[in-house]
């Protein structure tokens, strides 16, 4: 019986992709364009550093075999100076490689973060509601940091460690081919141990990341809702939930930590056994005169280098795996196609093209079902709103008031019927044009850090001071703005926390008044106002004959002066008329009015 739009089907498909484990990290490599030369330079300088490191054991061997054996102090000093020169050169190569890798990693993730933020701005309320704000915040912060760290480590170490292992083995072979057999036998055993631990650790690290997401989500919920938690005395319940989540995270971290902790003792045990065998074999060959003491020290150094680099490589691969997993999670957000987009050849809103006597907004058998919902939020709503009307929308909690008005600026798409604005289907308009013509003041008053002026100009960047003060007067906010010494330049804290709830609401209403929108929607945005202030605001709204106003409220007393009132119950339009008519004909409105203390005459 209910019909779903093609847009909702596309949302479902996109969200299905979101739940799958992605293999799309390589798609993010497109953000490396313009930095590929630097990305190549970083491992190249690490390669040069590795060469310096591989030459040092040979210098040490020559110092022992020649300088110390012959008592040639000049030779020893020259070789030591050469070793210092190699060290300085290696340091210079390492610092240069670090510079390029950090430059590429920061720029690369910066580009991804910028585009991800821009992409999130294109998602409709449907995708935001379904994915969840906590998940999106984690993608922009924790996951992006993991990607940046992974790129940095990859450019610095991915080529260096294998080259050191291979180079040390080759150099050991040039020193003594029989002793090099120990290297040939040790490296596969070390590789098996290290990568076995790594393969066990990788899924455990993924599980840790998932548990960390849950902890971050709980933390964000507690911080944002701390006042509600205190009001309902839920602190202990939230502490228990947070403790359970952190304990779960700790358990998983202990597990993966225990597995990862096996890496060092096992590898060092194997390498030390190999060193014992190497020293024993070397001693026999030195005694036989086949090998020198310096050569044994060189072989020992090469063995130590292999150990260090294999451990580094294992940790690097774990970090890269975590970065790839985070990259897949970020790319999965990019894969989500917005369900609400501007169509091809989108029309711009032209208020003058509306024929005389035509409704500015027309709902025709409109239904709305949210994604993953089992039933419609709105069902078969039909009504017309004409230019210049002051229309009230009322109903109980969950009746669909907010859902109805959010269809007009197309925050959600209807799933049945048709909705026209300014004489055309709302889905034919360019979104920017539509949302410049339709402005909504949401239930929650949101102010941005800055000044009162910057917040008001958010609605209309070209507004003059006269326009700003006029808007403040209409919104009953001019008095307290004049009371502060800075006036329009008074500072506003994040979220407007330095203003009371009523002041925040009046400033957000003033911000909407500054715009040139022909349709204004106030979604229960006067709930924190006292009766006298709200009455002044309603009077100002009635005087805006050049604009169509929809005023959403749960109080019948706030809507008595409206030209018409729309009454909603359980997603259905059950009343449409003036206050007096609805008192006589609509039981739902009569019940709401009685709860508000209104008499038949509209007085309290």
Keywords:
alpha/beta, ABC transporter transmembrane region fold, Rossmann fold, four-stranded antiparallel β-sheet, 10% strand
How does this model look, in words?
By secondary structure, the chain is of the alpha/beta class. The protein has two domains: 325 residues, ABC transporter type 1, transmembrane domain (ABC transporter transmembrane region fold); 245 residues, 3-Layer(aba) Sandwich (Rossmann fold). Helices cover 61% and strands 10% of the residues. The chain contains 20 helices and twelve strands. Strands 6-9-10-3-11-12 form a six-stranded mixed β-sheet. The N terminus is likely disordered.
How does CATH name the architecture of the largest domain? Up-down Bundle
- Summing up helix and strand content along with how strands pair, one would put the structural category as alpha/beta
* Low-confidence segments: 1-8, 10-22
**CATH level 1 name of the largest domain:** Mainly Alpha
Examine the coordinates and then state which fold CATH places here, giving the name of the CATH topology of the largest domain: ABC transporter transmembrane region fold
Mass-distribution shape: elongated
Helix tally? 20
How many strand units?
Answer: 12
Radius of gyration: 35 Å
Sheet having the most strands: 6 strands, mixed
